[in-house]
Design a protein that fits this description.
Elements lengths: L4 H9 L10 H10 L7 E5 L5 H9 L4 E6 L2 H5 L5 E6 L12 E7 L7 H14 E12 L4 H6 L14 H10 L3 E8 L3 H4 L5 H4 L2 E7 L2
Parallel strand pairs: 1-2, 1-4, 2-3, 4-5
Antiparallel strand pairs: 5-7, 6-7
Helix pairs in contact: 2-3
């Protein structure tokens, strides 16, 4: 089977740019703005080398942050603000049911094979507490610049693409509530996140509740 741990590890190691993405800290600042009141525990899915989690910790040092990634070398590089380093896949998260207040998944879901997208959403729903929140960003297939230039979201380790309306429907089908879509990506640094998604943004943010 293609969708093995080693296959994911190989795919993600090909995208070295993810370790130095200059927008990472800003993306996690956006996540921070949408954290539910009272959030104590955060599961950082696809945490990479932890630059995002470090930014969350700087904004609120009382947060308990767990990091999950399929690349051991990146987990080894996590800063001390991470309470736990979890080597594994999002399709089988080794955590108890309803044990996490918030899940953040920055530019992650597009790295999954199609067969694993719904498995992952099931796991997100399982480990989140009732009243918890999922925050995820993913590239926008409707991004006007890509449509004009003929560029594709598919690439070195991008294995799926997710149209906002379809992802929203999928999330609702998995029992999530109050799905909201906002603009993200580099343009949001200058325009905020409330302009039309289809025209402006190279990435979008889904804010999703479980209740």
């Amino acid at each position: 089977m293609l969708n093995t741990h080693k296959s994911y590890e190989f795919q993600n190691l090909q995208q070295e740019v993810s370790e130095t993405d200059p927008f990472t800290q800003k993306r996690y600042e956006q996540f921070f703005k949408f954290l539910p009141k009272g959030t104590q525990t955060i599961l950082d899915i696809g945490c990479n080398t932890g630059r995002g989690g470090q930014r969350l910790y700087e904004l609120n040092p009382s947060l308990q942050i767990y990091g999950l990634d399929c690349v051991q070398e990146r987990l080894n590089a996590l800063p001390d603000c991470y309470s736990n380093r979890i080597y594994g896949l999002s399709t089988a998260i080794p955590m108890d049911d309803q044990s996490i207040d918030t899940i953040v998944a920055g530019e992650f879901i597009e790295h999954l094979y199609p067969i694993d997208v719904d498995k992952t959403l099931c796991e997100f729903q399982r480990v989140l507490k009732i009243g918890g929140r999922l925050l995820l960003t993913t590239p926008n297939p409707n991004y006007l610049r890509n449509l004009v230039s003929g560029e594709s979201i598919y690439g070195v380790s991008h294995l799926t693409q997710h149209f906002p309306k379809v992802l929203k429907f999928r999330l609702l089908m998995h029992g999530f509530s109050n799905v909201r879509i906002y603009g993200s990506g580099k343009v949001s640094k200058y325009l905020g996140n409330h302009f039309p998604i289809k025209v402006v943004y190279g990435s979008y943010l889904a804010v999703v509740d479980k209740y």
